[in-house]
Amino acid sequence: VMPDEIQKISATKIRAKMREDGKLK
């Protein structure tokens, strides 16, 4: 797996987590 792909995946996960946190509040 390329480093760029890892960054993309981690960024997507963080975005999803932030979205969930926003819905909770």
Word description of this protein:
The chain has 25 residues and is mostly helical. It has one domain. The chain is 88% helix and 0% strand. The chain is built from one helix and no strands. The chain has one helix at residues 3-24. The radius of gyration is 11 Å and the shape is rod-shaped.
Short key terms for the protein model shown above:
mainly alpha; rod-shaped; 1 helix; 25 residues
Question: Layout of SSEs?
Answer:
Elements: H1 3-24
Short structural summary:
This protein is mostly helical.
Order of SSEs, N→C? Answer: H
Globally, the shape reads rod-shaped
The helix fraction, in percent, is over 70%
Extended strand count: 0
State Rg: 11 Å
Low-confidence stretches: none
The end-to-end span amounts to 35 Å
